Amino acid sequence: MRLLVTGGAGFIGSNFVRHMLTSYPEIEIVNMDVLTYAGNLENLSAFEDDERHILERRNIASEEDVESVFRSHEIDIVVNFAAESHVDRSLHIGAEAFIRTNVMGVQLLLDAARVHGVQRFVQISTDEVYGSLGPEGQFTEQTPLAPNNPYAATKAGADLLVRAAHKSHGIDSVITRCSNNFGPYQFPEKLIPLMIANALEDKPLPVYGDGMNVRDWIYVQDHCQAIDAVMRKGRTGEVYNIGSDHDVPNLEIVKQLLALLDKPDSLIQFVEDRPGHDRRYAMDSSKIRDELAWTPTLSFEDALKATVHWYLENDEWLEHVRSGAYQGYYEMLYGERGPAG
Ligand code: NAD
Ligand code: TYD
């Protein structure tokens, strides 16, 4: 079995590659990753000499690159993680790269999968395509798509292209929509690693707005096991929501992190809100639980502890990813951000 994993040097992709290579001795993975700021080969240094892991440093939004990868390797299944993935970048730097990778890239992969007779196409999507919830309820797979920021809009566009490829060309496809991930190797632009990194340096922890926006948090390894289950056993043409039933306000997460790191709450700084900031996400994941017998393995508390421990143990990794361009990015996004109000 040979998988094409795109974006396999990023946060979730590298955790998935690790999960697959350690769980299935017979598997081969072609890892197609252009290595943007978010792609990091250090994430997979343990598999540097593993012949089952082949890196292709190529762009999913380039027809030539996609064709070259499909021509060089006989691919059984595509698992598409490659994406521009950060909402704040889509708002403050621009949506163009998001459209290229998250929309155009997906169509090019779908076309190549069709031409080369790939058995299954797994699209890694997100709960953000559903937009925002009021105080009650959860997203189900039937919730209409209503994205509120450019990142989410491009991911919704991709989901529709995957659906169309299935309906019109009979591509065997499955889409997973997962809630907010956390865990080892997450780039410190997202809430949990950013707060850990800042707290370790006694820097302010920038909480957007009133800190009461709710996200449904899942440990990345549980997400990877869910993708594995959908890839192997999911019904063709279906969408599967993935979540851990742990929906809590951001402020609570930040306070828990400070407690685990033995740092004071006075580091919290409420800053100007994100434009179009979705108020609440919560996932109904009963479909994957009932149909595929998937369930998360760690409690949120244990997973958060394991994550903090990982960042403490991997200070060199953190130092590397925060050097260079990261500094400029941080200044641009937070330097001129006023206080909440
Ligand atoms: P990430 O930003 O950490 O990694 C993205 C990877 O894709 C990087 O390695 C990057 O180099 C690569 N990439 C970007 N553009 C590319 C291109 N044009 N060609 C080839 N490679 C390219 O992202 P992540 O957090 O690991 O997310 C992975 C996927 O999961 C994304 O599709 C995202 O939408 C989805 N998702 C993420 C979350 C989350 O909480 N992080 C939740 C649900 C779904
Ligand atoms: P993030 O990790 O960017 O994920 P997403 O936007 O995909 O949900 O943000 C998670 C939540 O944390 C979101 O409500 C925005 C908030 N947030 C902050 O309050 N401060 C920050 O510095 C960041 C990056 C996020």
Describe this structure in words.
β5, α5 (150-169) and β6 (173-178) form a beta-alpha-beta unit. The protein has helices at residues 11-23, 63-72, 87-92, 96-115, 150-169, 191-200, 220-233, 250-260, 286-292, 300-313, 315-321, 325-335, and strands spanning 2-6, 28-32, 53-56, 77-80, 120-126, 173-178, 180-182, 205-208, 214-219, 239-242, 247-249, 268-271. The radius of gyration is 19 Å and the shape is globular. Strands 3-2-1-4-5-6-10 form a 7-stranded parallel β-sheet, with helices on both faces. Strands 7-9-11 form a 3-stranded mixed β-sheet. It is built from 12 helices and 12 strands. With 341 residues, it is of the alpha/beta class. Bound molecules: nicotinamide-adenine-dinucleotide and thymidine-5'-diphosphate.
Task: Describe how the helices and strands are arranged.
Elements (H helix, E strand, L loop, with lengths): L1 E5 L4 H13 L4 E5 L20 E4 L6 H10 L4 E4 L6 H6 L3 H20 L4 E7 L23 H20 L3 E6 L1 E3 L8 H10 L4 E4 L5 E6 H14 L5 E4 L4 E3 H11 L7 E4 L14 H7 L7 H14 L1 H7 L3 H11 L6
Parallel strand pairs: 1-2, 1-4, 2-3, 4-5, 5-6, 6-10, 7-9, 8-12
Antiparallel strand pairs: 9-11
The protein binds nicotinamide-adenine-dinucleotide and thymidine-5'-diphosphate.
Thymidine-5'-diphosphate binds next to helix 6 and strand 8.
